[in-house]
């Protein structure tokens, strides 16, 4: 009888204990970041950043949704998402006008509180701050910088011909002639409306200076003005007339293969090219290297990925977006992302320990440009979106068959669109 009472008592105690124990809350569902980083080093980069964010902010986990394509496809996906109420906590964006479109529509949430917390004015280059700020408010956190104003070259070819990397346009022309005379194609290029435009930026800076670069992007200089005409003519002589045969049929990577094979000597491309060349077995500093395009006078032109957010209507998701941006701005997050991706951290307080030989050289270049306030954003994204697209299309088409008449036609077409957009209030930004 005694043992029976004991058994009942023990059972009651156990039931009470379970009843008194606090129920464990289910883990919060992961909010989404939308990016088009879906494979290779880009996927490794965003995975690294998400790991940092999820470690530091476990109550607001983040997962990725890949939007296939690029900025255009991301813009379309976001427009659909906003209409349907399916808004990500944070997303990948280009800078400049790409951000402004969402600011103008009232869909972006300012990140001033995050900017102040991470001391954005101190850690990011002024050139990047300039293009994520609208009406005195910050709307994006810069994540990386890819230089697009450096010319990569096959070092074996240069060494064989005893050529030094050119520092002036005169030297660039002489090197190009020497390469042609030796039977090499001078410059790689690829089809599409982005790659050729990259090659325009050094002639623009060389002719207009850094403030003229911003003035043209702000709509304050006519495209058919003498100085702009001079810049495009310089591009024609130094780039367009030196491109390899049938370049418009190549992708950026298949064009790079020509450099790997020793068929073409130089290629001005974003510094993601360095990772590709290494994957193909070329050793940085031995088989390939880079030099800044002539005429930049210490400037570096960069392509930048920015992270932006909106009010999703969900407090947890909004907090997840804020926490992710804090992680993305931090030295830890920037290292985790830019190390695998092969880009330079937008946060310039991060040291160069994550970089290889080419990366360290690029990091020093950007640091020096920043000291002169000459880190310049990709020109195309400073223009109204439709004009940026038109510039890319026009210059790619022109370069396939350049002539003085074709140059006039192109510049007049761009100028006509500039004037049309100037008549619409708010299309241009005074950068």
Architecture overview:
- With 431 residues, this protein is of the alpha/beta class.
- 51% of the residues lie in helices and 13% in strands.
- The chain has 19 helices and 13 strands.
- The strands form 3 sheets. Strands 1, 2, 3, 6, 11, 12 and 13 form a 7-stranded mixed beta sheet that branches. Strands 8-9-7-10 form a 4-stranded mixed beta sheet.
- A hairpin with a 2-residue loop joins strand 4 and strand 5.
- Helix 11 (201-217) packs antiparallel against helix 12 (226-238) and helix 18 runs antiparallel to helix 19.
Concise description?
With 431 residues, the chain is of the alpha/beta class.
Largest sheet: 7 strands, mixed
Question: Which blocks of ≥5 consecutive residues have pLDDT under 50?
Answer: 1-23
User: What's the rounded overall pLDDT mean?
Assistant: 93
What count of helical segments does DSSP give? 19
Q: Helix fraction? A: 40-55%
Strand-helix topology:
Blueprint (H helix, E strand, L loop, with lengths): L1 H19 L10 E5 L4 H17 L5 E5 L4 H14 L5 E4 L3 H8 L7 H6 L2 H4 L2 H4 L3 E2 L2 E2 L2 E7 L2 E5 H6 L8 H13 L3 E3 L7 H4 L2 H17 L8 H13 L13 H9 L3 E5 L3 H8 L8 E5 L7 E9 L6 H15 L1 H11 L2 E2 L11 H15 L3 E3 L7 H16 L3 H19 L9
Parallel strand pairs: 1-2, 1-3, 8-9, 11-13
Antiparallel strand pairs: 3-11, 4-5, 6-11, 6-12, 7-9, 7-10
Helix pairs in contact: 2-15, 2-16, 11-12, 18-19
């Amino acid at each position: 009888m005694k043992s029976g009472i004991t058994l009942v008592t023990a059972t009651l105690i156990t039931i009470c204990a379970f009843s008194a124990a606090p129920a464990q809350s289910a883990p919060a569902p992961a909010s989404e970041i939308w990016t088009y980083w879906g494979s290779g080093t880009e996927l490794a980069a965003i995975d690294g950043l998400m790991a940092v964010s999820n470690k530091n902010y476990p109550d607001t986990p983040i997962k990725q949704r890949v939007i296939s394509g690029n900025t255009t496809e991301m813009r379309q996906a976001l427009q659909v998402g906003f209409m349907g109420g399916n808004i990500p906590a944070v997303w990948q964006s280009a800078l400049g006008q790409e951000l402004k479109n969402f600011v103008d529509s009232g869909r972006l949430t300012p990140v001033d509180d995050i900017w102040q917390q991470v001391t954005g004015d101190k850690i990011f280059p002024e050139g990047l701050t300039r293009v994520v700020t609208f009406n005195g408010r910050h709307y994006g956190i810069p994540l990386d910088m890819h230089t697009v104003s450096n010319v990569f070259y096959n070092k074996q070819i240069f060494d064989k011909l005893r050529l030094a990397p050119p520092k002036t346009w005169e030297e660039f022309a002489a090197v190009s002639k020497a390469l042609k005379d030796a039977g090499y194609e001078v410059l790689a290029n690829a089809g599409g409306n982005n790659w050729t435009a990259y090659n325009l930026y050094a002639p623009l800076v060389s002719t207009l200076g850094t403030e003229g670069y911003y003035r043209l992007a702000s709509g304050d200089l006519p495209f058919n003005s003498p100085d702009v005409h001079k810049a495009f003519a310089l591009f024609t002589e130094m780039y367009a007339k030196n491109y390899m045969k049938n370049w418009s049929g190549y992708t950026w990577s298949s064009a790079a293969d020509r450099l790997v094979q020793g068929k073409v000597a130089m290629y001005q491309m974003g510094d993601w090219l360095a990772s590709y060349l290494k994957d193909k077995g070329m050793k940085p500093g031995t088989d390939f290297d880079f030099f800044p395009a002539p005429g930049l006078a210490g400037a570096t032109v960069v392509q930048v990925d920015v992270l932006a957010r909106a009010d999703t209507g969900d407090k947890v998701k909004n907090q997840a977006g804020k926490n992710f941006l804090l992680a993305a701005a931090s030295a830890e997050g920037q290292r985790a992302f830019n190390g695998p991706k092969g880009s330079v951290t937008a946060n310039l307080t991060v040291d160069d320990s994550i970089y290889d030989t080419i990366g360290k050289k690029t990091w020093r270049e950007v640091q020096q440009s920043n000291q002169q306030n000459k880190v310049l954003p990709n020109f195309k994204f400073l223009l109204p979106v439709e004009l940026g697209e038109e510039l890319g299309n026009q210059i790619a088409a022109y370069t396939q068959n350049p002539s003085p008449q074709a140059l006039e036609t192109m510049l007049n077409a761009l100028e006509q669109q500039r004037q049309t957009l100037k008549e619409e209030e708010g299309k241009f930004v005074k950068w």
